[in-house]
Amino acid sequence: MSIFATDALKEEHALITGATGGIGSETTKVLAEMGAAVTLTGRRKNKLEELAEEIRKATPGAQVYTHSADLVSEDERGQLVESAANAYGPISLLVNNAGVSGGGPVDQLDQKDMERVMNVNYTLTVLLTQLVYESMKKQKKGAIVNVTSLSGLRGTYGETAYAGSKFAMTAFTHSFALEAIEHGVRVNAVSPGFVDTEMGRSSAQKKADRKGRSLEEVIKDSIPSGRMTSPREVANTIAFLLTDAAENIVGDSVKISGGSVMR
């Protein structure tokens, strides 16, 4: 059940990257429930189509377009933005959700892995945003939400590469927000802690293994609320930041951690 009005994002067109992941899929569902036309992108075409069909069944009349793309390719980034605009008009909302984990303790870091993590989590996000921002500037409106992490606000053991890429995303959010608001475009970020997704559970399990404890014990001790954040909770926060209700929230990083940021 949506907590937002079904016309809260009517006449908006949202592009969601990493759409088939836990946070991405929930975000696309929420935005479609709010009346936005949604363009889903990721590398797995079959997964995109499965998600699109699920949205159409749950939200009759939903406008859903899928376009598989590898954001590493400059041509594919351009084709994505162009085809999305052809489908539902200029993109007015952007959720930069695509990302990967990787890395390890400093003495075990591999250059190729470090470059891969930084490229996907930061560089490619900026390059895609540039393309979408062009049309937002012309429209004199738009909203962008970057999915970062608590690891982009504080250091975490064994995550130098990942945290470094997320710190970069946080800095990008803050700096870009100052430029974009001059053109009526708001830029913000969400910074979740452990989220109940495949990536989030894997990260939490690694912490548990390192400490020689069970996953349940680590969650209880690390998160004052006693549980991981659900993907829907992150999606709802992203959705709020995309609405006019958040029109004076600019350059912020909203923490969603069950209180773990205080520990």
TrEMBL record:
One of its GO terms (molecular function) is oxidoreductase activity. The keyword Oxidoreductase applies. It comes from the Bacteria. Keywords: Oxidoreductase. SMART domains: PKS_KR. GO terms for biological process: bile acid metabolic process. Residues 12-193 form the Ketoreductase domain. PROSITE patterns: ADH_SHORT. SUPFAM superfamilies: NAD(P)-binding Rossmann-fold domains. Belongs to the short-chain dehydrogenases/reductases (SDR) family. This is Short-chain dehydrogenase. It comes from Lentibacillus amyloliquefaciens.
